[in-house]
Specification:
Helix content of chain B: over 70%
Strand content of chain A: under 5%
Radius of gyration of chain A: 23 Å
Structural class of chain B: mainly alpha
Largest sheet of chain B: none
CATH superfamily of chain A: MetI-like
Strand order of the largest sheet of chain A: 1-2
Radius of gyration of chain B: 27 Å
Order of helices and strands of chain B: HHHHHHHHHHHHHHH
Distance between the termini of chain A: 37 Å
Number of strands of chain B: 0
CATH architecture of the largest domain in chain B: Orthogonal Bundle
Oligomer: heterodimer
Shape of chain B: globular
Number of helices of chain A: 13
Chain lengths: 280, 319
Amino acid sequence: MLFIMPLMVPLITFWVVPFICSVYISFTYWDYISPSYHYVGFENYQYMLEDSDFRQALLNTFWFSLGVVIPTVGLGLIFALLLHKNFAGSQFYRAVIFSPWITPTVAVSIVWSWVFETKGGLINGLLTKLQIAPIPWLENGNSAMVAVIIVTVWQAIGWTMLFYISALNKIPVSLFEASLIDGCSPLTRFFKITLPLISPTSFFLVIVNMVTAVQAFDQFQILTQGGPGGTTRTLLYLFYQQAFEQYNMGPAAATSLIILLITGVLTLLNTLMGKRWVFF
Amino acid sequence: MTMQSSDILVGNSQGKADARLDNLGQIPATTGYVDSGKTRVNCKTWQKAVIAKHVSLIFSGFIMVFPFIWMLLGSMKSNDEIFSNPLHILPEHFHWENVINTFQLAPFGLYIFNSFTVAFFTTLLVIINSAMFAYAITQLRFRSRTLLYLVVMACYMLPGAVTYIPSYIILAKIGLIDSHTGLIISSAASVFGVFYLRQVFLQIHPSLVEAARIDGASELKILWAIVLPQCKASITTLSLITFITEYNSYLWPNLVITSQGRNLIATGIRQFFIAQGNYGLNWSQIMAASSIAVVPLLILFIMCQKTILSGIADNGVKE
């Protein structure tokens, strides 16, 4: 008992009890200031389904996580393939590629907001030099989303690469030898041996990156604040606005439970598939 | 021409294959099917492949660290220079006074001190309680320990957002809103810490613990004197990861802390960013502020990069 209490006390106070409270709040109408809760049943959820802001946020979350996961996993794999063997300088390259993860998202997002600035920003400056019309990165819905995705991918590649490196180094050497004797080309070897053997890791990385992307907040707040016109408002950002800008605690709690539903399904998928897909 | 290029292609692929075997050190580089004439070509193309690899790595590595370089150099430029020549990489003069001025505009020293304090004590608590909990569920026999582990793991998929509103109310009820203590205890339960240390403790040989128990050591003593010294590396990695995550955290501290003087660095630089934005963007000072926030962690990373990188890659865990 002595051993589990130090963890269980904060865990129950700040995770388990709040979770139960959130479920309750999502069935009420409450503005945080008034002492009484109005029980409204499923009204918050019903309202949510009809709310165009919610549907937009759901779609944005979907596109954002997809836009983050595919390049992160792809580029992470490419870097891992280049770096999984030790050679002079490999450790240095790994550190360089991993370094964005270390730094505070808020601070680096501020730097990126300068890079993306419409007038006087680095990217538009370069585009002008190349005689391409500048893009109002953060003032236009689609390009604002692209900008946030770039920042997120930039921070996430390092983790993904490290996982791929450890997976690649676990592939038995004998398999490569066998394929060499059979005269396989490197490309065949990659698609027939490497890729299938690291597929469990890929699946894991897709899921984990998706769960992280669904919960991304800092870069949105700095770069776009959900704008322009809600085009980069994800579910978490909608939750933040409902709860801490409008003080509509009921709908906010309902939104947060939808986020839980998404991450929960992804995590369960990961656990179930993880059990079935272990090759080595 | 076509002949040549196809030859290079073939040579290239075999060169790579040989290179791979070379590194594995299993089979000699020249396998039976390559005649000596071709080997020379292979050597050359192999070198080419290595150079191409390094060039592409240097290029992409440069892109990855470029925002940091841009930030540091930007903090050294004057605002006039930034607006007149936005594409100049190197500043004309190094304006070190930017950094000093920025320190005077907002209490960044205090913010960093706050962040370090909160991150340090959170990390300390996380290590202690995760180690104890992981020890209990791996080395002690009692009923319901699987159940306990499942409860903790279920919290793993709980997004922070679900807990923010009620946690805020709970903190307010016990009078710890706007205090560092409140921030520390509300982040003190780390599911990731339990998950990570459980994997590490499972690898400890049970006979060691048994032997100590027979010698009459208390469970706490076993954990402290036998288990922990064996996993120093993992404990260090976990501490670093927890510390970095706490230092970088923004949303929850931003909600809990309301008074200026108790702000953490992430909130501090955001407020500075907004304040500077109000009178036309003062990029050089904003970059100086970002550098102030980022540089301590970059230094920490440079000092500990080996531990962090190998700790993550070897254990195959993710936050």
